[in-house]
Structures are given as C-alpha cells and as structure tokens.
Amino acid sequence: MTKNVEHISLTTSASTHDEVILPPYPKEKKRQIWSNMWNHFTAMEGDEKKAKCQYCGVLIKYSNRTSGMQTHLGRCTAYDHDKTQPTQPNKRRKTNSEGKIVCSPSYSKFDQEECQALLVKTFMCCELPFCFVKNEVFRKLLITLQPRFYIPSRSTSRLDIWALYLEEKEKLKNSCQIMEEFV
C-alpha cells in the first residue's frame, strides 16, 4: 500500500538539497445532500450557487439553504402537485373514508359569512371606525391571512354592525322576559 506523498526540495544558501516529505493534503469533501428538494432541482456550475428547476427551468439561488427552492416548487405551474406523494408522512393531515384530504395546513374550510361576522364583532369590541376597512395595511393583513375573503365596504360593515346590534338587543329582551317569568 503506497501513500500519496508530496516531495518538496528546499534549497539553502549553501546549495545543499534537503528533501522534506509532507503528508498528503486532505481533499475537500463534498457535503452530503440531505434535502428532498434536490430531487426536483439540478445544481448549476459557476461562481453563484444556483439550481435549475427540472420542471420549468427557472434558476433559483440557494447559497446554503433550500427554502427558496421549496417556495418555488410550491408555486411552479409545470410541477404536478397531485401526482407526487409527500416524502414524509404529515401527521396533521386527516383523510376521510375516500382517502381525500379533509384537514391539513394547506386545505381549510372557508366561510365568507363567518369571517365577516367575526370582522363585525372585532369592529364592535375594538370600537374601530367603519372607515378602518379602507386602511391599506389592514386590507393587506386580511388578504394575507385569507386570500379568498372579500373585504366588505364601510357601508356594508355599518349595516352588519347594526344588524348584530338588533340581534343582540332581541336576545337581551328574550333573556329579560325569561328572568321575569322566574320572579
């Protein structure tokens, strides 16, 4: 068994040659790829660390993380999300008897009326002005939380708050009548 050994000759002022034997320099090991994202992307050669999507060909910078690739894969129109199975079982995913996903972080039941009623209660409890629905930051928050939510106008909000007031007033009347019956 022979070792790779580097021979270096040193020249001194007396012109004598001494040979120094150095151990071999360890080669740089490539890091093992752990992320499943590399099943969908190919690393490109060059100074910048970029990966090419195998479905649409888009180049994504990845430096030392694959989160950009994961984000792209979630939006990639050429990637067929239905045919692929998750590599790790998702414990939060629930399926019905037919095997369809019922409840998962990406699939949720949306009810416009329920959301609007909660918005009305928020306005009442926090004593917000009706024009607050026009606030750009507030609108962005609602759209970010639920993109399917149609944000009502201030007039609609006013009418909804009035309807809730009348409903609560009626409940209070009914509860007072019940209390009078017991007395």
Please give a handful of descriptors for the protein shown:
3-stranded antiparallel sheet, 183 residues, alpha+beta
In short:
This protein has 183 residues and is α+β, with helices and mostly antiparallel strands. The chain has helices spanning 67-75, 112-126, 136-145, 154-182, and strands at 6-11, 17-22, 41-44, 50-53, 59-61, 94-95, 101-103.
Helix and strand layout, with pairings?
Elements: E1 6-11, E2 17-22, E3 41-44, E4 50-53, E5 59-61, H1 67-75, E6 94-95, E7 101-103, H2 112-126, H3 136-145, H4 154-182
Antiparallel strand pairs: 1-2, 3-4, 4-5, 6-7
Helix pairs in contact: 2-4
How would you describe this protein?
By secondary structure, the protein is an alpha+beta fold. Helix 2 (112-126) packs across helix 4. It is elongated. Helix content is 34%, strand content 15%. It has helices at residues 67-75, 112-126, 136-145, 154-182, and strands spanning 6-11, 17-22, 41-44, 50-53, 59-61, 94-95, 101-103. The longest helix has 29 residues, at 154-182.
What's the story with the biggest beta sheet?
3 strands, antiparallel
Describe the global form.
Answer: elongated
Query: Which regions have little confidence, pLDDT < 50, spanning 5+ residues?
Result: 85-91
User: Numbering strands along the chain, what is their spatial order in the largest sheet?
Assistant: 3-4-5
Structural class: alpha+beta
Can you write the helix and strand succession as a string? Answer: EEEEEHEEHHH
Number of helices: 4
Helix content: 25-40%
Percent of residues in β-strands = 15-25%
CA distance, first residue to last residue: 104 Å
Mean pLDDT: 76
- Rg (C-alpha, Å): 33 Å
Q: How many beta-strand segments?
A: 7
Region (Disordered): 79-98
Domain BED-type: 32-92
Protein name: BED-type domain-containing protein
Keywords: Metal-binding, Zinc, Zinc-finger
